[in-house]
Amino acid sequence: MTKGKVLVIGSNATQIEVQGGGWGATGQYLNETVVPAMAVIEAGYAVVLATPNGTKPHIDEASDSAQHFEDDEAAYARAKAFFAHDPAMNQVRTLRAVIEEGLDKYAGVFVPGGQAPVVDLMQDPDMGAILRHFHERAKPTALLCHGPMAVVSTMPHAREFRSALIAGDVATAKNWAEGWHYAGYKMTVFSNTEEKVVEDQILHAKLYFNMVDALQAAGGEVITTTVDFEPNVIVDRELITGQNPRSDHPIAAKFVAALDRATGAASSRAIGRDKETQMKAARMHEYGKPPVLEEVPVPDIQPDEILVNVKACGMCRSDVQLVDGYFRKYADIPTPITLGHEITGIVHKIGGVVPKVAGFQEGDHVVVAPGWGDGVCRHCLVGNTHICPNVRWPGFGPVGGFAEFIPVPARYLVKANRRLKFEELAPLTDAGMTPFRGMKKLRDAGALGPGRVIGVLGIGGLGGYAVQYAQLLGGGAKVVAFARNPDKLAIAKNYGADHIINIKDKSSNDIAKELSNATGQADLDAIIDCAGAEQMMQLGFSLLAISGHYVDVGLVGDRVDIPLFPRVSREQTFHGSYWGNNTDLTEVMALAAKDKIRHTIKLFKFDEINENIDLLRTGDIVGRAVMKW
User: Fold this and answer.
1) What are the CA-CA distances from residue 599 to residues 378, 479, 540 (Å)?
2) Distance (Å, rounded) from C-alpha 610 to C-alpha 320?
């Protein structure tokens, strides 16, 4: 059973007038049509597609590519298949038919863009009648890109208004717009500078009028971004408008939220239970006992926070250690604790004082930066909030990522490229960021470069990323991976390790000889230890060269027993490196957006959390385990 019906109105136009008396090819944009329609269906609503003549809309060839899906070929293929085969896109009604059958049955209306609506919907009297119905009843009305031009149809003299614009007579157009239903509404539409790009690169001709100028002449308060093709959604009362093709996901999120408010239904994209008041969460109630998978209230957000709908969360050895009580001697965190700190998801709700300049909109894909500082200590003031003496950690307190929602201070969210998979984004917030910060310390200390050898100790969740960073930041240093598991060593080799050494059941002398045979030297100029186990650290220090640098990012053990004299006489340096800050995370995200980072992921479901905690405890997970909703 659906929550209700939503009317999607498409255009039948295939050509648009251009200056000089010619015509340019046009149509609807694929992503602008399909992304919101699929979101509405996924949220539990039924979609009815209608056009002026009852035939299926024509897709503009300019939109028929993966480019409009953030170069995600899979998303593009799904969109193509949905538009071609889904019944919602193939059982098309006429606008007149849906009026005669009754508009009260519809919870909301959506009009996608492409330039086509400027040709027919903008001046169609049936379109006007439909929009007036939704306007008078304050029902959610969403229009995207050029779709907002359809609101002109509510004018009694929409055709005359359009003709005046084509003639360049703005004064007459304003007269025809008198009494317009949407006068004074805040709205957005495809901007003048964005239109120029299309005119120059696609149409190779100029249109008779710009959309911004037209809606302003009608009496709308038009708001567009200063940067072209940045997502922008404006909401004013029942009217929800999106500026350009990249606003497809944000407008879909806001439209679904408005539908849910209007119908009193909870979005199945979020939790689909009890009007968004309850959510699933994995919470630890007692140290030493498995987390309880239970339903708890969705947390409230503070005015400076954003509620994130979690889509994936990585599992870290520290989750196991938290359960087992490893951290209690350092911080006895009160229970219940919601586990999970490698978090990614979608912006669901934005607090009232989050500044607009932060750039967040509902529907944005984000990752959560760990280490929420007090903002006033000397560490916070230089950006190292993760080592603030009053730090808060997601996953180590009341809120965490093994839950459907998490409230996050806006300053600790980083936007993510939409084409990146959630299951690959989540580990980047710890497993992918922690060795990155450690590698930067080695680089900045001058430990890397041509003729140097760097050892990566431990190829678990962090080590696979560390091998890649050693190649990216190593300045030509040879990269050697050390581990006991042949499967994990194979990953290191695949990720660019110049040499791999299996250390199982071998003495440090045997390992040094093998290192010498592989690289020409029996010691390491730099080490990044992704294990932190006592035996591994003893091995690492036995291999560390004169003036060598050792950075530890692993926490398998808790103490280390090593000789002091070689550390002093050989002038070696030990670096502790803990997690990372916002700068580290944004740099990692930039590398990911350029496809510079590869992943080995083991996916699991929410109800498999405890099973995977046990597997991680025994070291039986290769790569990173990630829970995906």
Assistant:
1) 35, 18, 26
2) 10
Give the count of domains, the chain: 3
Residues 205 and 343 in one domain: no
In terms of domains, do 139 and 36 share one? yes
Residue 486, preceding peptide bond in cis (omega within 30° of 0):
no
Distance CA 111, CA 211 (A): 15
Residues 6+ apart with CB under 8 A from 246: 229, 230, 231
CATH number at residue 145: 3.40.50.880
Please indicate, yes or no, whether residues 456 and 560 belong to a single structural domain of this protein.
Answer: yes
For residue 297, being part of any structural domain is answered with: yes
**Main-chain dihedrals φ then ψ at residue 107, nearest 5 degrees:** -80, -25
DSSP of 456-480: EE--STTHHHHHHHHHHHSTT-EEE
Closest of 530, 529, 468, 528 to residue 495, by C-alpha? 468
Q: Is 412 found in the same domain as 438?
A: no
Q: Which residues contact 524 (CB under 8 A, 6 or more apart)?
A: 453, 454, 455, 480, 515, 540, 543, 544, 545, 548
**325 CB neighbour count, 10 Å cutoff:** 11
User: pLDDT tens digit string along 323-376?
Assistant: 999 999 888 899 999 999 999 999 999 999 999 999 999 888 999 998 999 999
237 and 217 part of one domain:
yes
Q: Which contacts of 541-546 are long-range, i.e. CB under 8 A and separated by 24 or more positions?
A: 541/566, 541/567, 541/572, 542/508, 542/512, 543/455, 543/508, 543/511, 543/512, 543/515, 544/570, 544/572, 545/521, 545/570, 546/570, 546/571, 546/572
Q: Is the pTM of this model over 0.70?
A: no
User: So what's the pLDDT on residue 276?
Assistant: 57
CA distance 535 to 513: 18
Residues across the chain: 629
Element (H, E) at 613: helix 609-617
Q: Which amino acid is at 274?
A: D
Per residue in 84-111, pLDDT tens? Answer: 999 999 999 999 999 999 999 999 999 9
Pairing of the two strands 46-51 and 5-9: parallel
Q: Is there a domain that residue 585 lies in?
A: no
Residue 301 and residue 197 share a domain: no
Rounded to the nearest 5°, which phi and psi values hold at 74?
Answer: -65, -45
- What's the CATH number where 410 sits? 3.90.180.10
User: Alpha carbon of 45 to those of 5, 77, 275, 404, 468: distances in Å?
Assistant: 6, 23, 15, 21, 44
d(CA 373, CA 392): 6
Q: Kindly state whether residues 117 and 251 are assigned to the same domain.
A: yes
In contact, 402 and 339? CB cutoff 8 Å: yes
Q: Are 43 and 267 in contact (CB under 8 A)?
A: yes
Residue 613 lies in a domain: no
Same domain, 154 and 296: no
Beta bridge partners of 258: none
Q: Does residue 623 lie within any of the structural domains? A: no
Q: What is the C-alpha to C-alpha distance for residues 7 and 262, in angstroms, rounded to an integer? A: 15
Task: Give me the domain span that covers residue 565.
Answer: 434-578
